[in-house]
Amino acid sequence: MTYDQLLRSSEFALAPRGDNKFSFRFSEVLSAGAIPVVHADDWVWPFRPEVVDWNRCAVILGEKLAGNHTLDHIARMSTEERCARRNYCYFRIYKKYVATFEGQLQGYLDGLEAIGRQSNNTTPFAGIRCNASSIESRDCNPY
């Protein structure tokens, strides 16, 4: 059995942190349709929490809780919750935001829009308007 076959047949898969606060293994787990099990403190998630609710997808536990605590946590999870997590991980996150470059860009743009909605400025950014004379005098540049 290959690594890819093993991931695709797994309901849960460990996504170790590695040297950084994120790992490509996490993306591999999502692409396989498995529920990521993350043991990492201060993990850097690929999209803002306003865009993706990672608690609905991954099993997120601190590094010190690895081992039996993880197995107990997974054992208590109902079949319905497992199914809901797998669907959310694969269809709501992987297919929409991770599988393609366009999806990744959309996830980042959705995150920026969420930040904009949180600000007190209710007027949407209209862009910068320039004409030939303002370009030469640099009047259109807000910096």
Secondary structure layout plus pairing:
Elements (H helix, E strand, L loop, with lengths): L2 H6 L3 E3 L9 H9 L2 E5 L19 E3 L6 H8 L3 H20 L2 H18 L13 H6 L6
Parallel strand pairs: 1-2, 2-3
**Biggest sheet, open or closed, and with what strands and sense?**
3 strands, parallel
The total strand number stands at 3
Low-pLDDT stretches: none
> What percentage of amino acids are in beta strands?
5-15%
**Class from secondary-structure proportions:** mainly alpha
Adjacency order of strands in the biggest sheet: 1-2-3
Task: Characterize the overall form.
Answer: globular
Explain how this protein is built:
The chain is built from 6 helices and 3 strands. It has helices at 3-8, 24-32, 68-75, 79-98, 101-118, 132-137, and strands at 12-14, 35-39, 59-61. It is globular and about 45 Å long. The N and C termini lie far apart (57 Å).
Give a summary of the structure in a few sentences.
This protein has helices at 3-8, 24-32, 68-75, 79-98, 101-118, 132-137, and strands at 12-14, 35-39, 59-61.
